[in-house]
Amino acid sequence: MGKRAGKTDISNDLGFLDGKRGEMTSMLRAWCAINSGSANLDGLAAMRRALAEGFSGLGGEVETVEGPPQEVVTPKGEIVKKPVGPSLRLVKRPQAPVRVLLAGHMDTVFGADHPFQTDRLVDEDTLNAPGGADMKGGLLIMLYALMAVERSKFAERIGYEVVINADEEIGSPGSAPLLAEAAKRAQFACVYEPALPDGTLAGARKGSGNFSAIFDGRSAHAGREHHLGRNAVVAAAEFAARIDRLSGKRDGLTVNVARIEGGGPNNVIPDKAVVRFNVRIEKPDDEGFVLRNANALITEIGARDGYSARLHGGFGRPPKPMTRELEAFFAALKTLGAELGLDLRWKSTGGCCDGNNIAAAGIPVIDTLGARGAHIHSADEIVKLDSLEERAKLSALLLLRVAAGDIPNPGLQGSRL
Question: Taking a C-beta distance cutoff of 8 angstroms, is the pair 128, 139 a contact?
């Protein structure tokens, strides 16, 4: 994906972003002060209002999109429906010749009762803040990049759809249909998950599945009628040990047994237990391999006298391979980074995000265009403040170079021509 010999001068368009670090830092700190944990619907509503105020300045119509509830398995093995926060959506110039999806999430892993609620400056360039890197900094970068685009003479050549969901940290159960439909309308996509502190981007990503194995046994007195009991915790522990052995059976396949729930007083044989586990895979075929083995274990244990077992959950994130089109997209971005003095690199990762699902729609997506940061999902999360302006310029440069025709449209390369 090479450049034309004579590049269009868009320095004035990028110049809009010069000196914006202080302004962006202030807005980021205000956004991080809003608790928007995935389960905090009131906090998500407040965050959605703040985002709507910011993104409405782009001129498109900002709307709220409801999604289906999430199915959750309780510690007693009951399946209940739990509401998730709505998404924010903005569409601008959908009939333009260049069409891009820009996606991000407003939710964080820090609930309203989490002790990590306030920010602090570690040094003049480092902010420790809940969601600072993952990914309120990314949303800010997306916004300012689009503000630069709107000031360009090439704005009319590029149409975009912005989707900011509120359930990414729990697997996007409510927003997945919205993202899938938006991906079908786009030629390529940009997602604003954080890059590594040195700016390294995520290339190929593993797929991910989240599961709950539910076991029912028979309660009995642990002393007087021990022989009549059927211990659900023991059955769950056996399943956990055996499902863990799938790790390494296929290249890159890992199983993480995260929790076993169940049990009660020492003198009562427990009749209910739940095993929570996550699976990461490199290849789409590994999904069937895992499901066949997991269901075989469920069937075997559930067939025993006095027991029943069932599996809930599935693979919500398909693997995101490094395709020929995606390699070309990264190569073009690296060339653009050089214009800004950046040496952009990328590597495969076991992590996953909405970029996995968007890529499954058949379009190339770079999903770590957000801020440089580290220690995400912990109280030590940091965002590098100099990356706010830097990454906004990178995204704006990418969008404007495609709109100007200086680089081919990433979604119209190779097999998509």
Answer: no
Query: How do strand 308-317 and strand 61-65 relate by DSSP bridges?
Result: unpaired
How far apart, in whole angstroms, are the C-alpha atoms of residue 134 and residue 66?
A: 22
Would you kindly state where each structural domain of the chain is located, as residue ranges? 11-72+82-205+319-416, 207-317
Instruction: Give Cβ neighbours of residue 293 (< 8 Å, ≥ 6 apart).
Output: 243, 246
Q: Is 370 left (phi over 0), alpha (psi -120 to 50) or beta?
A: beta
Q: Cβ distance 139 to 107 under 8 Å?
A: no
Q: What would the two tokens of residue 110 be? A: 């820090």
The answer, as to whether pTM is greater than 0.90, is yes
b/e for 42-51, b at 16 or more Cβ within 10 A? Answer: ebbeebbebb
CATH 3.30.720.210 fits 11-72+82-205+319-416, yes or no: no
| pLDDT tens for each residue of 223-268 | 999 999 999 999 999 999 999 999 999 999 999 999 999 999 999 9
First to last CA, the chain: 13
Q: Which CATH number describes the domain made up of 207-317?
A: 3.30.70.360
